[in-house]
Amino acid sequence: MEQRKELVHIINQSGAHPAWGLKHCNRVYLLAKELSQHLDLDDDILFFSAMLHDTGRYPVYALANVDHSLRSKGVAANILQRMAFPSDKLPIVLEAVESHMYYSEPGRSDEAVYLRDSDILDNLGNIGITRLFSLIGQDELIRTPEDALERARTFAEALPNKVYTKTGKRLAVKRREEILRFLSGIRKQTAEFVNL
């Protein structure tokens, strides 16, 4: 339990944007547990993977021109070794962290697969829209509200196809519909985005 508290403290001190910080990590962890409740996953592996998967994005750890999943894997290795995390679980956590992105193949462990699906799902639905709008002006790909809407549209079309598990696929369909309803409503309320 002390290791978990220490890790939460590390994340809170990292300068992480809320879209990638502790609440995002916690949602990913809880969703992975929910989606995998029919399995007996290792909770330590799942928790530490979820908490560390985006550390490579955080200001205190980020490196220019380095994919954040690879950077996160290196940061996670350093943090977990310093914490004396069990050596038999360490490679599984590191693989889950490295393979969490939608453009990566799922990792080999069930924990890695459910972590990846949960991270993808946190980019969809109402929470995904909220996260995108919170990044306006904070992310090089999302400089304007129009950019956020375009990214939401892209996510709604592409990300559900990246989800691997059956339970995740069902939720992806629902969250895709949430985005599409939002986009339809905002289109109507802004005269086809003219008055956004």
From TrEMBL:
InterPro entries: HD/PDEase_dom, HD_domain. Gene3D superfamilies: Hypothetical protein af1432. Pfam families: HD. Residues 21-124 form the HD domain. Transmembrane segments: none annotated. SUPFAM superfamilies: HD-domain/PDEase-like (SSF109604). PANTHER family: HD_PDEASE DOMAIN-CONTAINING PROTEIN, SUPERFAMILY HYDROLASE, PUTATIVE (AFU_ORTHOLOGUE AFUA_1G03035)-RELATED. This is HD domain-containing protein. It comes from Desulfitobacterium hafniense (strain Y51).
